[in-house]
Design goal:
Blueprint: E1 3-5, E2 19-21, E3 43-53, E4 58-69, E5 80-86, E6 95-100, E7 106-108, E8 117-119, E9 125-129, E10 135-141, E11 144-150, E12 159-164, E13 167-173
Length: 174
């Protein structure tokens, strides 16, 4: 039941791996749209993940990665975006969670990022965690930006350093 392209033996022997594409230069899966009138919002290709809801015996879209036109296409001018969608617990349809627009801006929680990296949420938190459990957080709420460092074990030596050109400019310690 496997489809093997460019090989006569399976690369991955797990039951879920049913399509294998192999090439000496590194295999690529190519999806294309054959249309000379591409406009903003038109789909250019995508990967859709579906599951069979056993109560209704109907396939439902559970996640998607889509490439779409981010403006009208013309010769040498093809703005595109990538969107990533998932289904929340208790929901029955996908919701866009992240977008990379035609200028390379990444938006999480927003469909129109205005900066290179923008997160919109009720109280967004970025947590950077080391394998030992030590973490640092950047969070924002109404007119407040918080920086937090935590050793994760109550150690009192936690500090926040501000650096300019690689040199410490300011330190806030415990």
């Amino acid at each position: 039941g496997r489809l093997l392209v460019g090989t006569t033996s399976a690369v991955d022997t797990s039951d879920e791996a049913i399509v294998h594409i192999v090439d000496t230069l590194g295999a690529r899966l190519v999806l294309g749209r054959n249309d000379t009138t591409v406009a903003a919002g038109n789909g250019l290709g995508g990967i859709r993940f579906a599951g069979n809801d056993t109560t209704s015996n109907t396939y439902t879209t559970l996640g998607e990665i889509l490439c779409q036109a981010d403006g009208t296409h013309a010769a040498g001018d093809n703005p595109t975006r990538l969107t990533f969608k998932t289904t929340a617990d208790g929901a029955s349809s996908v919701t866009e969670r992240m977008r990379i627009d035609n200028q390379g801006r990444v938006g999480i929680g927003t469909t129109s990022p205005n900066r290179v990296f923008e997160i919109q949420d009720g109280s967004p938190i970025i947590r950077l965690t080391e394998s030992a459990g030590t973490y640092s957080e950047i969070s924002a709420s109404t007119s407040v930006l918080s920086l937090r460092a935590d050793e994760g074990d109550g150690v009192a030596s936690t500090r926040i350093d501000f650096r300019v050109d690689g040199s410490e400019a300011m330190r806030i310690d415990s």
